[in-house]
Amino acid sequence: MAYIMVDIESDGPIPGDYSMICFGAVKVEEGLEQSFYGELAPISDKFIPEALAVSGFTREQTLGFNDPLQVMSDFQQWINTVCKTDRPIFISDNNGFDWMFICWYFHHFLGKNPFGFSSQNLGSLYKGMEKDTFKNFKHMRVTRHSHNPVDDARGNAEALLRMKKEFGLKIKF
Which is an annotated GO molecular function term of this record (predicted)? Predict the structure, then answer.
């Protein structure tokens, strides 16, 4: 299995009505050297200025971003390349949000999702390891959480690697 840590930024709360603006992915392995970044043109005229502001982009900038079909095709090719014969596993800090956009975009633009039908949540994993639903893993990041999705995915991947090393998490990369 190949764990792919993903983070997305959007201009609203749900895909379809709103747009995924950019996303980043990092293959979880020592060194965290393999990453992907995509900027996607809006698919809707609707956007929430406060949601878009989190990404650091203006609406005008996003209108010049890449065709979502091409970005999702490139992402699928990257997944195929970095996973080779391993099954890709989607994991993120907030998989309820990140997964919904990635899954919708894959199915909408490519008709299939290389991650299949399930995802994993890093925060829930940590809470289970600690046996405490109030615990938070975010102190385990090294890379600062900046809302650059590659940085944020990298920080979350660093936390997962630390969970393996420091807690003895049984996980194979």
Answer: nucleic acid binding
Give all domains of the chain, ordered by start, each with its CATH number.
2-167 (3.30.420.10)
Question: What does the pLDDT look like over 68-77, one tens digit per residue?
Answer: 999 999 999 9
Q: Which residues of 122-133 are buried (b: 16+ CB within 10 A; e: fewer)?
A: bbebbbeeeeee
End-to-end CA distance of the chain: 7
**51 near 11, Cβ under 8 Å?**
yes
Instruction: Give the residue carrying structure tokens 């010049």.
Output: 64
SS3 state at 41: coil
pLDDT at 26 over 90: yes
In 28-157, beta strands by DSSP E = 35-39, 88-92, 120-121
90 beta partners: 4
CA distances from 66 to 72, 74, 84, 122, 161 (A): 10, 11, 26, 29, 32
Residues annotated as part of the active site:
147
Tokens of 36: 């992907």
- In Å, what is the CA distance from 151 to each residue of 26, 103, 117, 157? 9, 21, 26, 10
Beta strands in 113-170 (DSSP E): 120-121
Residue written as tokens 């090719």? 77
